[in-house]
Write a structure and sequence with these properties.
This protein is an alpha/beta fold. It is 50% helix and 17% strand. The protein is built from 17 helices and 15 strands. It has helices at 5-9, 62-72, 90-99, 112-146, 150-162, 184-191, 231-270, 274-285, 302-312, 337-346, 364-381, 388-392, 402-421, 427-436, 441-448, 452-466, 473-484, and strands spanning 17-20, 31-34, 48-52, 76-80, 103-106, 165-170, 174-176, 198-203, 206-213, 219-225, 293-299, 319-323, 326-332, 352-359, 385-387. The chain has a 5-stranded mixed beta sheet with strand order 1-5-4-3-2. A 5-stranded antiparallel beta sheet has the order 7-6-10-9-8, sandwiched between helices. It has a 5-stranded mixed beta sheet with strand order 12-13-11-14-15. It is elongated, with a radius of gyration of 40 Å. The two termini are 75 Å apart. 31% of the residues are buried.
Length: 485
């Protein structure tokens, strides 16, 4: 800790006497500067203890001199008596008391060099303590980063070292210590104004240092402390930023490699190389689930698939892997695999699942395809889960890509829907009812609540707008498919 005016005044061998500023003696002394200049501002940086014997000062010039020292930001004034002045000029003391400048009287027998040495020793000790503190903190952070603690451990260690809270933000969310998570929204708002570098701001009585990390993904570290960080604290934060950047980049690469390995295992299973695939699974993740397997496919965006993998990592009884644009989850039959997969998916946003009944190992390739088809059907229908049995029960529609079928239906029926929007009839529903009743005019008209001649006119109008012969079985089949999408 830096030497303060109070600490210097308490050094009894120096014999200093406090004349003004008793309530300001907690000011740290940056250095000592003896001078007899009446305006030394050009030679000061601020924070110094200025020493003078007042050779050029008197009662008249002292007030202006004191004000110049205050403007220069000196910590205090040491006035040596017994040479040019038997006592400190009264005007100097009065003005110093008014403007808040601590004045220490230096007795004749105390040379200025003794004060300089005392301050120099304190500054050197403070710098040494700072260096030791920085070195110790860097070692602790490094051990944490390369040990089992990882990035989360670095955050906890940093919070302890600076006696504050720490928050790590990225595009997916935030991770923090102590009260940090309660400040996540405010810090994220500040981050929007920072492209790169460092930003310092006040938040709930804390000074917050927000610093971006030099990683490929946009990340930032926020450190909140009750008091501004000192030199050692800033060095510690910079060390944490460097270690977190390295750890997170390595973590990303390692995670990507593991996920590629999982995908490779699925490819081996689909290719029928079951023994090799099971061997890799056993070596990398432990004993795989016992066949027959329940297979679930979940579809969603890339970020959702990535976060789903993170959510499933802790469940050792399930095997998962990205396959195409889906995540396949495999588990033992009867192990409640669908519920656990859906529970994990619920934590990352909307995803759609397809389920296949338990299958033996040799049927894995077909099961994976079927689960994916069922998941696509769930996505098209907006359902959280569709089993392949439900999907297959849809008949011909189960063989058509849901997106393609929807676009086909919209294009084919567009002329009828435009007509209906004009309020001139209900052609779409009339065609649907007529096809449902196999072209029986009386039955379909009764179901619609219209006269059969009205229905005939509607069907004639529909054929005209579509430019197709509705007596053709092929055309009727196409219309029925379109109406189901």
């Amino acid at each position: 800790m830096a030497l303060t005016l109070a600490g210097l005044a308490a050094d009894r061998p120096l014999g200093l006497r406090v004349l003004t500023g008793d309530d300001l003696l907690d000011r740290p002394i940056g250095w000592v500067h003896p001078t007899e200049l009446t305006d030394p501002q050009a030679f000061l940086e601020g924070g110094e203890l200025l020493l003078t014997t007042g050779l050029a000062l008197d009662e008249e010039s002292s007030p202006a001199y004191v004000r110049r020292l205050v403007d220069a930001g000196v910590a205090g004034l040491g006035f040596g008596v017994g040479l040019s002045h038997e006592s400190v000029p009264r005007a100097l003391v009065t003005t110093a008391a008014e403007v808040g400048l601590p004045v220490l009287e230096v007795p004749r027998e105390t040379p200025f060099i003794a004060i300089t040495r005392a301050v120099s020793r304190a500054v050197a000790a403070d710098e040494y303590a700072t260096t030791v503190r920085i070195g110790t903190a860097q070692q602790e952070l490094t051990r944490t980063a390369v040990g089992k603690g990882g990035p989360a451990g670095v955050l906890r260690k940093l919070a302890k070292l600076v006696d504050g809270w720490v928050l790590l933000l990225d595009t997916a969310g935030a991770e923090g210590t102590g009260a940090a998570m309660s400040y996540a929204d405010e810090v994220r708002d500040e981050l929007k104004q920072l492209r790169s570098g460092t930003r310092v701001f006040a938040l709930d009585g804390h000074e917050v240092v927000l610093q971006t990390l030099p990683t490929r993904a946009r990340r930032a570290l926020a450190v909140g402390t009750p008091e501004p960080l000192d030199t050692a604290g800033r060095h510690v934060v910079n060390t944490a930023v460097a270690l977190l950047s390295l750890a997170l980049e390595q973590d990303v690469k390692l995670t990507h490699a593991w996920r590629l390995l999982r995908t490779g295992v699925v490819d081996l299973l689909a290719a029928g190389r079951h023994e090799l695939a099971l061997g890799v699974m056993t070596t990398a993740w432990g004993d795989p689930p016992e066949p027959p397997w329940a297979v679930v496919a979940l579809v969603g965006g890339p970020a959702q698939r990535r976060r789903l993998g993170d959510a499933l990592e802790g469940d050792s009884s399930l095997f998962f892997a990205e396959s195409g644009s889906a995540v396949l989850v495999i588990g033992r039959s009867g192990g409640d695999v669908p519920a656990r997969a859906l529970a994990a998916a619920a934590t990352v946003g909307p995803m759609y699942a397809g389920l296949v009944d338990p299958v033996p190992l040799e049927n894995f390739a077909v099961a994976a395809e079927q689960a994916d088809l069922a998941a696509r059907a769930a996505e098209a229908d907006g359902k959280p889960l569709v089993t392949y049995a439900e999907h297959a029960a849809r008949g011909l529609l189960s063989l058509i890509d849901p997106v393609v079928a929807r676009i086909y239906g919209e294009n084919l029926l567009a002329p009828l829907r435009r007509h209906d929007e004009s309020g001139r009839g209900d052609l779409v529903e009339s065609v649907r009812c007529w096809l449902e009743h196999h072209g029986h005019w009386d039955v379909a008209a009764a179901r619609l609540g219209v006269h059969r001649h009205t229905l005939r006119n509607r069907i004639r109008k529909a054929a005209e707008l579509l430019g197709r012969d509705l007596d053709s079985p092929g055309v009727r089949a196409e219309l029925w498919v379109a109406l189901q999408t």
